[in-house]
Automatic annotation (TrEMBL):
Organism: Tothia fuscella
Top-level lineage group: Eukaryota
Compositional bias of kind Basic and acidic residues: 156-178
Protein name, per record: Uncharacterized protein
Region (Disordered): 65-103, 152-178
Length: 178
């Protein structure tokens, strides 16, 4: 772990540009649980250092903000985000965000409903859907039947508003978090 050996230039680099240490996922990210499909980031090719231990190429070590349009990515997004596709977790806690979960590049786990947000996150596709209500009766997730409601078009079910295909899901286990 050369990044943590105290050397004069390296120490100065970290002091002058804290992002090279604190905003460097391969350098500082902890992994209490291994993400699926090798989601752990590392430097490839390996970093090069000056004789004093500083990074030769600072552009490689700092995480760059990524702008993504989720609607444009569609099926090209990773589909291995849900190791338990037959499990549904439902939470009423306003601190549990389905919107944030679906929008996170690194999140993975079972499908999730945030009752307080009124959103279901399909973790297999990383797609958020509204919960059904008196004002939203189609193109929504029904928390009583635990499935999406849409218009039947042959063998496919579609959201009437957007025309997008709606996934068919069946849950063997539904966990209600208080």
């Amino acid at each position: 772990m050369p990044d943590f050996v105290a050397m004069e230039e390296r120490t100065a680099q970290y002091a002058n540009n804290t992002d090279t240490l604190c905003k460097s996922t391969p350098r500082m990210k902890g992994w209490p649980v291994m993400p699926p499909n090798g989601g752990i980031k590392f430097f490839e090719p390996r970093l090069q250092y000056t004789p004093g231990g500083a990074d030769v190429d600072l552009n490689r070590v700092v995480d760059k903000p990524q702008r993504r349009n989720v609607a444009e990515q569609g099926p090209s997004r990773p589909q291995k985000r849900n190791p338990k596709p037959n499990v549904l977790n439902i939470s009423g806690d306003p601190n549990h965000s389905a919107k944030e979960l679906c929008g996170s590049e690194t999140s993975w786990g079972p499908d999730f409903v945030s009752v307080s947000e009124g959103i279901w996150c399909d973790m297999s596709a990383k797609e958020a859907w509204p919960l059904c209500s008196s004002t939203t009766e189609m193109g929504c997730f029904d928390t009583v039947a635990n499935k999406l409601r849409g218009s039947q078009h042959g063998l496919r079910v579609r959201d009437q508003r957007s025309g997008r295909d709606m996934p068919h899901k069946e849950f063997d286990t539904v966990n209600h978090w208080e």
